[in-house]
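Input set for joint prediction.
Command: fold jointly, output tokens.
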Amino acid sequence: MISVEEAIDIVMSQTIEAGTEKVPLQKATGRVLQENILADRDFPSFNRVMMDGIAVNSKAWQEGRREFYVEGMQTAGAPQQALSQEQNCIEVMTGAMLPQNTDVVIRYEDVKIEDKVARVSIDEVKPLQNVHLKGTDRKLDDVLIHKNQKLSPAEIAILATVGKHTVEVVRHLKVAIVSTGDELVDVNEMPHPYQIRRSNTYALQSALQAEGHEAQAFHINDEKDALETKLREIVGEYDVVILSGGVSKGKKDYVPEILEKLNVKKLFHGVKQRPGKPFWFGVREEGSSPTAIFALPGNPVSTFMCFYAYTLPWLRKCYGLNTQILEANLAEEFDFQPPLTYFLQVKLTMDQGQLLAVPVTGKGSGDLANLLEADAFLQLPSDRSAFKAGESFPVIQYRQIF
Amino acid sequence: MISVEEAIDIVMSQTIEAGTEKVPLQKATGRVLQENILADRDFPSFNRVMMDGIAVNSKAWQEGRREFYVEGMQTAGAPQQALSQEQNCIEVMTGAMLPQNTDVVIRYEDVKIEDKVARVSIDEVKPLQNVHLKGTDRKLDDVLIHKNQKLSPAEIAILATVGKHTVEVVRHLKVAIVSTGDELVDVNEMPHPYQIRRSNTYALQSALQAEGHEAQAFHINDEKDALETKLREIVGEYDVVILSGGVSKGKKDYVPEILEKLNVKKLFHGVKQRPGKPFWFGVREEGSSPTAIFALPGNPVSTFMCFYAYTLPWLRKCYGLNTQILEANLAEEFDFQPPLTYFLQVKLTMDQGQLLAVPVTGKGSGDLANLLEADAFLQLPSDRSAFKAGESFPVIQYRQIF
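tokens >
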């Protein structure tokens, strides 16, 4: 058995090149950009009026003029006008081009207009006041968004502004989720007393959906031949296979031997952690591109934890993203004796800018319902058994709470 | 003009009843539950074996027996067996029913099986060890998930377990996003020097998508007749209309007068805030159900900020969700003189369980590109002008960083 740190290193060293694809801008939210986005013009692209009011020439102002004949109106979206007489003014609207021969905008609040004459009620103006000068935010050809940026609404706004109606992003890997276990029936079936309904495939599909990611779900019973036939197909067709169940010491835990038969190279089996000790990880290098196989223990809490602690960060790394490690402060002291990394279920709260983790211990890795009470796993290191209130530890969040 | 606090109170008092709909489990992630979910059986539903190994009767153990003849095997998903002789054992697999007449599971690691005889290598066992007792996690008819819960992968797992292949959730309101402004051309058009491309509708659509929410986008030029005709249609058809532009003091800012003409009741126009001062909000009560109208100022940063500070919390409240207010500590001192609530753009970082907000001041509400550098707005109150490092303030996050 290896440590959690070793397991993470091994998993993270096995990223798969995902390739790129083009998607329409309206489908790009949450995707990872695969091109640098340059400014197609200066930002702003002209001297832009920032307030509704009048535009004047500062020379006239300096010469003492406070009343200006209104020559015309410059609206947003109209070609640039020019002030013909320095002592006059032009009414200007927010978003319009500053008219030629003007350099000061005085807002309506400081002006009274009667009979086409604007009288200014303030005593001072600054040159270029209320003017957003061409190129002050960004210059033509500046890199606005760098490759590998995850696209949030702010980036979408910029992509629209520079005319990117299609965007080059990282292709999503093809993900299969496979549950095994004779005790499992589907959601719309009525289980016998000795059966339960499948939940892991639904949970993992949902977790991927929350990342904007599709996945195909399968179920295979614990029969060697069926497992081999079906897994051969799936491993051949998908980039990532997430299995749940069949990796422990049970008499019907056939998954590791079947995977080795399919030429999947085992990279580890067993991690010094609770839950999720029997976690098996391997890669098949055959064919045009490799397939990564995460064979997770079937207990629902183990599956859930291993997905968030290993598979999701790995997937993000394949896409060129770094997972920022969030830390939280333990709200009360906690003891855990076994020499294993313990992924403690916690509820997260925010107190005066401080992230607190309140332990919500359940009844072990079979206690699926306990996940409802918590938001995250707090990763407590294996080399200690007493953890004090106020100490800060990495947190693996599965519920967005803010 | 009213304060930000008053504006929030008014907006939040105008929630719209969204109604309910049924969706398939695979589409329920992110939705808000509209029914209580009860346990359809005990959790677990039988005395469940927690480890692969052998099941014995503790009476035999207490009488000193350490070698057990293996009578049979109880696998997961198979009907319950019974131990016929107290001095024997049955091999048991994780997830299986505990056989009748047994009450202790000893894991394979502590047992050696040869010639159908299991020899136990440990000296002590506890009654019911490695047995997950029926009903210890939850009882039949316990409420597992309460109405108004937002469905994350953990809830999806539970819904699958109790057989909810369709789920009753809050219906999504019909949202229209409408940009106005003659200076705006579409993303696939080449703007004239005095024009810019539309970005607000794309940004808001993306922000709603990130919430798993659809929205229809429209653009209307600054012509009174077109505005009236088109807005009449939209207000009649949608539950929520988010406008951007046309609400300031400009000569072509027709939106407020047109909305009043369409019998939209103005609830406020103008908020003591920067950005977003000209924000207009109203409700039309006509027809079968009311329509809420958020007429946001057209500057991209203003639109963005008002959406996240007002529209999104309002939408969540319509769906029965409370927005938890996140707080962050200002990383450096900051000054803002005007007597307005200032929504300062900040970059968020986590330092030892402490959320820090680093100011990223841009060049005003037209500086769209500055949104790229920041993650959130820090809400600085209007009654002060000096803000010290380490002070904590509410934060309105637009980018998920963890």
